[in-house]
Structures are given as C-alpha cells and as structure tokens.
Fold this protein.
Amino acid sequence: MRPEPLDLRHLGRERVIGCYLLETSDGLALHDCGPTTCVAALKSRLAERGLALTDVRHLLLSHIHLDHAGAAGVLVREHPELQVHVSEIGAPHLVDPGRLERSARRLYGDDFDRLWGELAPVPEANVRPVDDETLGLATFSSPGHAGHHVCYLDGDGTLYAGDAAGVRIQPSAFVLPPTPPPEVDLEAWNRTLDEVEHRGPERLALIHFGVADDVERHLGELRTRLREWAERVRDGATEEQFGAEAAADLGDDREAYEQAMPFWQSYAGLVRYWEKRAA
C-alpha cells in the first residue's frame, strides 16, 4: 500500500514536516515523529486513523535533528513501551540530549522554544541501535546530510528516506538539498545516493514532504542541485545571493520550503563544509 504522510502542520503550516505510519514485523511504527511542538498534531493525525499513541509500538528515526526526532523523549514519557530505533552514533544523544540542545540553542537562539519545544531524554532501555535489518525493513547508513543518518527500505519498494533524498514540498517538482551545519559531507552524500540507486526503491517517502514516485529524476535533480549549491558557495556567493538564487524557482511554495529548510542554514552548512575541506 502506498504510504501517505501524517502532516504535522509545523507552526500551523501544511506540508512542512510529516511522518509515516507503517506496519512492521512487530506491529505499528512511526518513521520519524517531528518536534515536541507537533505532538498534538501527531495525536490528531493518529486519531483520524482510529489510533492512539499507545497503539504504536516502535519509532524508526532517520536521524536526531529536532525536526525529525525532537519529540522522541516526550513520546516515550507518555508511552513508556515505545521502542526507539536509531543509528548507533545517534543513540547517545537521545539518552542525553544536553549537547544537542546546547548546539541547537546556539543556532536558533530565542526561536528554539517556538520552533521545537521541549527536548526530553529517552531512557536507555527504550533505545535500540539499528542493524542491517530493523523490524523487517532493510536498514543502511546514509550519511551526507548528517553522519548519523539511516534509511529504511520496505519490502514494498518504499524507501523511508528522512533527509537523504532531499526536500521536495509536493506536488512541487523542485528537489533541494538540506545542508545545515555542522556535518554536511558532499562526497558521503553522493555515495549515499549511489547506494539508494543500487537498492532500486520504487518510491521515496520524504519527511519534507510527501511520496515521490519519479525516483530516477528526483535523485538526479538532487545530485545536480547539491553540486550547484556547493560550487556557488565555494565561488564566493554571499548569504543574501545564495538565498535569492535558491528561492528563485519556487514560486508559491517558497515559504514551505524555507520553513522546512531555511536557506541561511543551508548556506552556513556549505560554508562550514568548504572551511573543513580547506583545513
């Protein structure tokens, strides 16, 4: 069955952050959960399907960035049986999110609480580092956007891609690469795209936002734009120039794209990438 995103309506806007409900070998799971500011919306989307949070047995995290995993600790506090699956690298930051929160507060400043809300720890007993298979889904490391990113491939051909396959606010066709600091790695990201193509998914379930069926075209556009953006920053574009060019083709969807993936963050991440390369 084709998955459909649960729209978490971040800050009241549709098609910015979603998550997915799927059937696994051990019951229902969510792929990503959004931030704590979206918990009420998550519960509402579940209720629309006749479900409560306690009907979900597992949380499959793509990575620990707050727009994907920020609510994990709050959800476990409300539902102590919930098992949280995450990369081995990301697991310690769920158990003790202090460093993650300090870093995010430096980045977002006074906007942190409005955007993300509470960042609660996940008890270690609830955390399950992923292996090559998770609850019947093929699981593989997918760095580039972040070093701790993983993807999950269902037997029906759906790749639960997190941010590894970029941002595309559907029905828009534009695919943009989220490149926030500090871990963007272009070489690793292109190897991840090689791996995705090798595994041959039939569709890409994107957190930002919706399910893409034109996999080959989508991934090709992501590769091209990732290269173009990196070259633009390397060649000296200012943050203002970068943002203007990034937004040029988006039309009415610009605000949703920019909320899902602020252009200033993508610029800062690429600046950081080139600084690390130079060092």
